[in-house]
Fold these 3 entries.
Entry 1:
Amino acid sequence: TEYIGNNGREINKLREQISFFNLKIQQNKKECEERNSRLKKEKEKIVYHYHKLKRTMNQTREKEEKRLGDLTMNSKACMDTLKGYQKLGEKILKTAELCRKLETEKEKVLPFYQSDEVTLEEMPEINVEKIEGMKKQKYNEFQLLDNFYKRYNKVLLDKLAIEKQKATLEKENMFFKSLLKQYLDGVSVNDDVINSNNPLLVVNSKVNLNRPPVERMEGQPHKTFVEGNTVINNISLQRNANYN
């Protein structure tokens, strides 16, 4: 009986230990599951942030590569433009040296014309701050080109004056060619000249030359001047025509 009682107590003790360990196992299992759940969520967050950071890095790398490519292309274009400006500047300097040889003494001493003081006083003062889109610094930079535009405008005016004078001389040249042709037709003998009016034939103190009327200048006396060489040449031509 005592042996059975001891075994019963031992069995109860073991049962209590088993219950305790089962409870401990349940507690540890619950704690481990909670810990695993937290670790899994933390892992998912880390993976998400990793992919997000990787995606951001790739986008940033692509943007930087694109910016680097644009910067390289713009740098090359800028260098080409600067080289073009350099060539243009060298060409301008060479042209200026060549043009300086053709300048008059006055232009060499005073390369820029002097502005009229009266005109400057009459011009209103420019308020740069009121000009839309214009900064004072930019305006001052543009003022550095005043001397260039002075020379450019002077050359442009000279060019226009020369073109006008050229047109006038060409018109006079055509007129004198026409007179010369009429004169040569008058002193030569051929069928066309005989059948047409002789421009040198004087009828009632009038010639048949096709020429515009002579305009008299106001205040000038009515005087006709003939150069001696012209008279001698005309006489020689008439004599040669008569002898022939």
Note: The CA atoms of residues 10 and 21 lie 16 Å apart.
Entry 2:
Amino acid sequence: GSKTLWLGLFFAAMPLGQALGMATGGAMSDCGPVDIFGWQAPSWRMVFLLEGCLMLPLSALCWILPTAINSKAQGIDNTSNPIGIPEPMYQPHEALLALLRNSTWLLVVLGFSAYTFVLGAIAFWGPTLVTEPPLGMAPSTGASTFGLVTAVCGVVGTAAGGMLNDYCGGGTKRALRQVALSMTLSFPLGLLAFHTSSHGLFFTLLAMVQLLLFNTQAPVNAVLLDCVGTTLRN
């Protein structure tokens, strides 16, 4: 099935949005101030205004979305309970304790926290990095290029990671092997990228690193759901 792919694409939406924001903001940074109903503002702030206009109809759609897609399957975990035995309900503190006792869930969450830390640092410091020595790119060009590379690699890497996991048959063990291999390979490539002065080599290495990083989005989220019962997922 394509469950892993769709999970990865959903959870990749935030870093992809950040990347598109970097690219758009960088492209507009060289423009002069814009007049918004008599209010002078930097041109890059138009991104926020346009985003708000786009989000209004999308937010309104949330009011009419169904609250349950498959009500017959609620409360039953057909993976961990093939005979369809309903799982017990948990109080919030009981659910937290149950999750903390789940070694797979706990280790994956800790690893995913480190991954999020790295991805956040790349998103925050990346545009600044390319404008300083030894790369020394113009701010608008550097931010736009960095954002576009991140956005493209986010879509391609996430989709490839989900399809690869589904192709290999899914499962927690296969997904964790895929994540471990991707993270391990991305580390030396990232170190090389930070020590090059060539624009072409830097963005090539950056693309490879981000493809490997985003490759983990889908299998990680699939593991987090598969390693716990239906009641804890809800």
Note: The chain has one domain: 3-23+90-233.
Entry 3:
Amino acid sequence: MTKKIFLLLFFFFIPGICNGQSRVFDCLNREELPLKEAKAIISLVQDEYSKTKGVEGTFSQDSFNAALEMSEVAVGRFYFSKPSKMKWLYEAPKKQTFLLNEGTIWLYQEEENQVLIDSFDKIFVSDLPVSFLMGLGDLKKDFEVQSGCRTPDGNVIELKPSAEVSSQLAAFKLLVREASYFPAGASIKDAGGNTTSLLFSDVNVKQSFEDNLFELKFPEGVDIQDRRKKNGR
């Protein structure tokens, strides 16, 4: 499975309705943030988060599929534990669980009564902006600060991925509130014009999680599709 397909899997498997939260990241007619200040903010974000072992919170995800010209929205909870575990519990409009644990992807789709399993090596994970939240990426090294602006929701900073990071990413923006310097949101646009925005709330820094949090539990009789076997892994 190619990297582009993984991008679509991660950001577009939740159907929903149109949402306008992507406008939060629009810097049009906003006060410009001096480049030096924008770079300083990114350094603080990286430095502060590097001290963090884990984080949990709620999220709202708004995705625009350019090919279908359709927007989708979903809400739920997320959990990150460095260096290689994350869990997204989608609560609406469909209950689904996306789990990454030690290089293996688990996607449990409750309504479809199926579980998809595949490998997700760290080389690919480091290509995604979300890898920063897992402690696998470095904002200062992997991205170049392009511009920034002040908005009622916080500082929006646009970053350009280095050629070594990914050719699939066209744009990456972070929403940062100075009260915590933890990203309050992120907007990601790929080379195909697909855009996904994430807004985080009720964020709590954690020193550790129970191990079973990153274990996927599902009822008997679920259709399990293990793509690792097809790929010879």
Note: Confidence is low (pLDDT under 50) at residues 1-19.
